[in-house]
Amino acid sequence: MTFVNTSCLVVNCSCSTHMTEWETTMNQLYTYVYLIIFIPGLLSNSLALWVLFRFISKKTKAIIFMINLTIADLAHVLSLPLRIHYYIQNVWPFGNMLCMLCFYLKYLNMYASIAFLVCISIQRCAFLLRPFCARNWKSRYDICISSAVWVVVGLCCSPFILMRSKSNSGNDNTTCFKDLPMRKLDVRSAVSMMVAAEVLGFLGPLIIIGFCTYLIVNSLRQRNQKQQSTGSTRKALRMVRVCTGVFLFCFVPYHINFLLYLMVTQNIITNCAASQAIRHFHPISLCIASLNCCLNPLIYYFLTTEFKQQLSQHSSSVLRGRLMSMESTSSYRE
């Protein structure tokens, strides 16, 4: 089995010498972006998870899928301090297994997020168009679907770590992430991986979310013509549109670049200028994809009416309880 060192992806050595300065810039880019993501990502997703578990019980609002989406985001966010340490120190002292786990969690978060955004869009669309189905829907159905998503996505993301391996160099125990060598695949395996990642992980979900948006827009248009438009229709449309927006902003750049980047790592693209451009954009696309950890909470905070209602009701009840307690204490003293 042969390996390609991703720290020197281009074949032409004279071309690779121009990448040294970019290596430093890339480390700084990862560091700053992960620092920016970590605190708001941790706080927003932790609060969202607490509220979703504690207060929201309505089964027709894709709550189970939102919980799983939040868990996927938190898993990636909690691995960011180790990534930040590596890009600042340029040394990985935590062992190969933890390196592979952090590397795996990044792609698991990306594709689990895509899958649950699709689930949210489908369910909101289906329940809007088929309200009688929503009445008979059970929460355990969502749990079974979520479990299946985790299994399928977990297995499908395994090639990302199987393609990476420690080399036999002396710096074996100090490298991780982008500095790990990549296995050289045969043409059939490379093409299969590219097609699976693009079709199952990108084009398929994009088509599904787009179709859900179209159905809801069409339903809203028909109801407006009949003057039967309801708030639930508009809310469902806003939610699906936000799912579409998060999907397009976070994941389109990465998947556009993914095909080209894999071709560079497999020496299919050997042109110096093209290889540099593709390699330069790769970390940028990964950083943009990581922003989904901070953007996904928009779905909970701004579009789920139940979320805001329950949160305000809880705050009001706590305030009322404190006021009543103060009044009773005051009366007792008098």
Automatic annotation (TrEMBL):
Where are its TM segments located? Answer: 29-53, 65-88, 108-129, 141-162, 190-217, 238-263, 283-303
Give the main localization category: membrane
Q: Which residues form the G-protein coupled receptors family 1 profile domain?
A: 44-300
* Localization annotation: Membrane
How does this protein sit in the membrane?
Answer: Multi-pass membrane protein
A GO MF label:
G protein-coupled receptor activity
Task: Give the UniProt keywords, A-Z.
Answer: G-protein coupled receptor, Glycoprotein, Membrane, Receptor, Transducer, Transmembrane, Transmembrane helix
Query: Highest taxon of the source?
Result: Eukaryota
Pull one GO CC term from this UniProt entry.
Answer: plasma membrane
- PROSITE patterns documented for this protein: G_PROTEIN_RECEP_F1_2
Q: Which Pfam families match?
A: 7tm_1 (PF00001)
Keyword field contains Glycoprotein: yes
GO biological process terms, semicolon-separated: phospholipase C-activating G protein-coupled receptor signaling pathway; positive regulation of Rho protein signal transduction
Q: Does the keyword Protein transport apply?
A: no
Know the name of this protein? G-protein coupled receptors family 1 profile domain-containing protein
Could you tell me which species this protein originates from? Sinocyclocheilus grahami (Dianchi golden-line fish)
Tell me what gene encodes this.
p2ry10
